[in-house]
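Hi everyone, sorry if this is the wrong subforum. Our group has a chain we'd like a structural model of before ordering constructs, and none of us has done structure prediction before. Sequence below.
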Amino acid sequence: MKLFNISILIAAFLAVGIFVSGCGKKEEVPPKTTTTQEQNKTQDNQQKTTQQQDTNKTIAPDTSKTTEKESKTETNKVVIQTSMGDITVELFEKDAPKHVANFKKLVKSGFYNNTTFHRVIAGFMIQGGDPNSKDDDRSNDGQGGPGYTIPAEIKAKHVQGALAGARLGDQVNPKKESSGSQFYIVTGNASHLDGEYTVYGKVIKGMDIALKIEKVGVDRASNPVEKVVIKKVYFVK
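Answer:
Right subforum, don't worry. Here is the predicted structure as tokens:
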């Protein structure tokens, strides 16, 4: 009888442990598999870049004078104004109408203003759109959103400059539904994500800015040491 009671207690403890471990998961894009040697080289480069930033901080360029005039009406072109420069994206309304409609809604409400690119992987992508990134607490960056997901609309390919929705992994998200707000921009090779994530736009101007962002120094969570802020997102004609 005592052995039976002990077994019940152990089973209950394991159940609680599994439940807790499933909470607070980040909306992430799985990086392309690399060898241990490549990972060590990347870490060394990141550390050197971080040290350089600490000793010689760069001044962000003035983006107050934009080359594109802000539109008062909703269009399929948006400018992501960052602390390092502007990125213009064209939205694929035909390929992913639900994602585009949601993105436009968030743009109009100012949802993305003062968020950051909280996850950056050189040669792969830059990820942003998390409202948790507005504060100084880095521990929950990547876990936030508007409280809902978007049904998968998988069609377009992950070419360089592609704008796509981040999401939770297949184990907890078998329908491949996208985060309600988090997105990523492909800066390198991401063809292995084709058929897995919804692409709903593409960079048509400012790809050089996205490539600059991917090269900033990051911490162990791939979060830029010096914040790369999304100051504002707005429509243009």
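For your construct planning: Residues 14 and 20 are 10 Å apart (CA to CA). The chain has one domain: 30-235.
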